[in-house]
From TrEMBL:
Organism in which the protein naturally occurs: Luoshenia tenuis
Signal peptide (UniProt feature, chain positions): none
Descriptive protein name: AbrB family transcriptional regulator
A biological process from GO: regulation of gene expression
One GO cellular component, as annotated: membrane
Amino acid sequence: MELFWTCLLTIAVAVAGGFLFTKIKAPAPFMVGSMFAVAALSVCTGLAYFPDALRPVTQSVAGSFIALSIQPENVKELRSVIKPYFVMVPGMLIINILLGLSMYYFCGMDISTALFSSVPGGIMDISLICADMGANTSQVAIMQTARLLFVMLLFPPMLKTLANRTLKKQQAEGQAAAQDAPASQPDAVAEDIPVEKYAALTRRQQVLYTFITLAIGGVGGFIGYKLAIPAGTMTFSLLFAAAFNLITRRAYMPVFVRQAAQVGSGALIGAGLTLADILAMRTIIVPAIILIFGYVIMNLGLGYIIYKAKMLDLTTALFATTPAGASDMALIADELGASGPKVSVLHIARIITVVALFPSVIALVIGAVT
């Protein structure tokens, strides 16, 4: 019973944090605000608790919501993520190795720990993998946690500012030039949820279609979860809900459901942060600075390369190359004007590749160095 009340307190604090960050007009307020508020609760009181069993539920809702953006007329456009993928993944692997070697040579970390600390993958996935390859799992987990916190707090406002500046510059050059180069313009508006399609729905129909969409996405998420593949829950919930939407065009979900998913994601991240984690970060300040600096260079470099090559609009390219979770970034990207489906697909592809390929490459690098 005590856990129930602690969980209820955590949820209340997460929601309050979301609304507070909405008032100060922070990017992705419900996710970042809830994460910040719950992390403060956890560090200061140790009372934060959000059951990890709800993670698949949050991921299923996120995948189902993103699926609403996938319409029959723009399915073919998802082919446009193939070229960005072959730019993004090799670039991330090269930077991963360079960052790992930098921390190995200049910070005194062992080579395995250094390389796995800089892998742009999930904290749990990477921690489990690195344990089999002789790395210091606690250091890797702390570095990955620091990476996630910095990315969630720093990257959304930074990327929003950069994308807005570029958009204003394009608008200043004239509407005619913008129309002549549609591939370089933000396409999220065209791919966002077609709200006008639902304008005629009654409240009863909205509730019914929301329930059906969540149920179908939940079934897909459960299958993905049971298959135990990287990002499987979100991937299958997205596929199932997208199939329902493409076949029936009746998938529906109100915006507050996405906000609830963001609050859940933020609470999960924040509840996992403890005072011990904060204190332990003092020992990895220099490696963490190297890591975050390298990630910023990677994010901006790869994002602008993809954008300049006219593979994606700038906002989508920047969010697609952000080293964070697929569901987290897809939810934030969708809110800040990027293409949620494209960001989601690229992040899922990146996570699968990281888990399947990066450890083998890291093993080769370790063998070459030692």
